[in-house]
């Protein structure tokens, strides 16, 4: 496994991380033992960076990672996210009271006193123009509840605005063969500011594995079934926003 520095955090993280959405839910039924086996295998392979969120399985993913960290002696860095528990998911919900509740919940789920990396979970675009939100996160860092914070974004424009805040340490952004705009518009700016980049949806929800066909079926609890057109959340989270048949054709070619 190769490692590289993550922004200004001082951490050396595995170039390949473990995305923990599937072990929480929204990808069909996954057994706990299978999830733990996958997590342990990842550590065996040298992966030391795990990404999760408080909404993945309503905390299930975070709790599984807490169990992993307890059982393994290796250094394990866990990045979680907050914000998507808001209903409705509106910018004014990103206030100190709500963020504190989300953080306290994740601290409990992960059985820790301080979160390694907290990321705002694809907040509404208005949040990036609300400096008070980032000031609140600075307060939580000073209190020791967070070591660092970053953002997970839907659009390049959001990423560019986010890195204007000096203590944003990382940006998680969709990047794969279908989504190339970050190369032209964002990566160089992030490098100049020494902001870590976390590429998400790298295989376009599995579409780029070449394993799927027009006849492939997905469980009713799998977002690749129920969110193809953005019915539940941003369409870009599922197959990178591509029409499934068009994506299949591109992969085949």
How many E strands? 9
- CATH class annotation of the largest domain: Alpha Beta
What's the name of the CATH homologous superfamily of the largest domain? NADP-dependent oxidoreductase domain
- Summing up helix and strand content along with how strands pair, one would put the structural category as alpha/beta
Question: What is the domain total for the residues?
Answer: 2
Oligomer: single chain
Uncertain runs are none
What does the main sheet amount to?
Answer: 7 strands, parallel
Question: Which CATH architecture of the largest domain?
Answer: Alpha-Beta Barrel
Q: Beta-strand percentage?
A: 15-25%
Please list the strands of the largest sheet in the order they lie side by side.
3-4-5-6-7-8-9
The pLDDT mean sits at 96
CA radius of gyration: 18 Å
Topology as a string of helices (H) and strands (E): EEEHEHEHEHEHEHHEHH
Q: How many helical stretches?
A: 9
> Between the first and last Cα atoms, what is the distance in angstroms?
30 Å
CATH topology of the largest domain: TIM Barrel
The level of helicity is 25-40%
**What overall geometry do the principal axes of the alpha carbons give?**
globular
């Amino acid at each position: 496994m190769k490692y590289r520095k993550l922004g200004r955090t001082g951490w050396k993280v595995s170039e390949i991380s473990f995305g923990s959405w599937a072990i929480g839910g929204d990808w069909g039924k996954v057994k706990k033992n299978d999830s733990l086996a996958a997590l342990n295998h990842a550590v065996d392979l040298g992966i030391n960076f795990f990404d999760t969120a408080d909404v993945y399985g309503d905390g299930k993913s975070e709790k599984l990672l807490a169990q992993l960290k307890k059982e393994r002696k290796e250094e394990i860095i866990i990045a979680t996210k907050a914000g998507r528990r808001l209903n409705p998911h509106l910018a004014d919900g990103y206030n100190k009271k709500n963020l504190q509740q989300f953080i306290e919940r994740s601290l409990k789920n992960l059985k820790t006193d301080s979160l390694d990396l907290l990321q705002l979970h694809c907040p509404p675009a208005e949040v990036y123009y609300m400096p008070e939100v980032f000031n609140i996160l600075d307060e939580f860092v000073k209190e020791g509840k967070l070591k660092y914070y970053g953002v997970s974004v839907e659009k390049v424009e959001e990423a560019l605005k986010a890195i204007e805040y000096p203590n944003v340490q990382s940006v998680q952004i969709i990047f794969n063969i279908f989504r190339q705009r970050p190369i032209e518009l964002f990566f160089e700016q992030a490098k100049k500011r020494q902001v870590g980049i976390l590429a998400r949806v790298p295989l376009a929800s599995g579409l780029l594995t070449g394993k799927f066909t027009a006849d492939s079926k997905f469980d009713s609890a799998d977002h690749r079934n129920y969110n193809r057109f953005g019915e539940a959340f941003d369409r870009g989270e599922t197959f990178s926003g591509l029409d499934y048949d068009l994506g299949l054709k591109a992969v085949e070619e």
